[in-house]
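Researcher: Sit down with what I've pasted below and flag anything odd:
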Amino acid sequence: MAHVILRHRDVENIKELDVYVKNGGYEGLKKALSMTPEEVVNEIKAAGIRGRGGAGFPAGIKWSFMPKGDGQKYIVINNDESETGTFKDREILEGNPHQVIEGALIAAYAVGADMVYCYWRGEYMDAAYPAEKAIKDAYKAGYLGKNILGSGFDCDYHNHFGAGAYICGEETALLNSLMGNLGQPWSKPPFPAQAGAYDKPTVVNNVETLANVPPTMVNGADWYANLGTDQSNGVKIVCMSGHVARPGNYEVEMGKVTYRELIYGDEYCQGMRDGKEFKALLPSGGSGPVVLPDALDGNVSFEGLNDYGSMMGSASVIVMDEDTDMVWAALKMTHFFKHESCGKCTPCREGTFWLEKTLHRIMEGHGTEEDIKTLDRVAHSMQGKCLCALGEFAVSPVIGTLKHFRSEYVAKVRQAEAVPAD
């Protein structure tokens, strides 16, 4: 099956405007401009495109929340891509930037916005060069700017670079950073659709989400809806990393490929690295609960891991082999979340500090049985108490490893207790 999103793998130099146009580029925008904005929103609703940044919220419904009528509105593209093990959006914007620009323009037309901001994580500065060129070329060709394609629709597009903070993947923290404020989330309401960037109605969509829009407009809602499953339509890019023979990005039809096939399939990762045995998998980076070998038969979809107590998220799959120390893995992930916590709310700020400190004590050979209980207690006390999802994600490594690999914690503690003090 030809790629829907990673088209640069099929079409050489599709990042260049003339090549993109020769291969159907901006036809989706032309079709959208021949429709009413409401018809475009309804088309995306019917297609069932869901957010690809992790939450999976339906894009068409999010667009429909925007107030009708005149007034300044914004489209903001979330290219912060800070989830551990995620690297799909960078490849899209490096290899096929016009498809994202076109998707954002269709979204802008549908909601009545005349400005698009693409928010990049700071570490992606070098990766932005192809996208910057694509923007300039699109302006010259009349796909951006005033009176686009003679339709009377005006829209500008700007890249904006953050300082490289995980928290800015959360949409309200991203908007604060975009406006020059601290990258910290705000309590909802107001939701961005009512008061977002510069206190104006705003839609925030992930890069991959918007890249799904142009082919959907060209081929129709039924075409897209027939890909995948009833709950998970379309295709998904899965970022495979860790202890696999061939890591990388793989585009799959939702619900049609299992995690086992991704790891061991010849067209995907081709097995475990160095012939090691599989031990555990993080299906959504550090933020999603770790799963065991039985979950490998779950499929890549929003519902595919429901029976295994985890979630697809942004599909940043980290594979761990038999030699992985799961206490060490929990410490590495907890350190990341503690470092990336914005510190605005007490449960996350204090909780991540104590989780990391306690894990360090266990790893360094000074842990006790009480420390294991402390980890469990602190992690569960943070759940449902944090301002944004970061605090919820931060407890996942601890809760998941304690659930499935508690024996490894106990072994370290007992080994420490067996060593006489100096």
Remarks:
- The two ends are 64 Å apart (CA to CA).
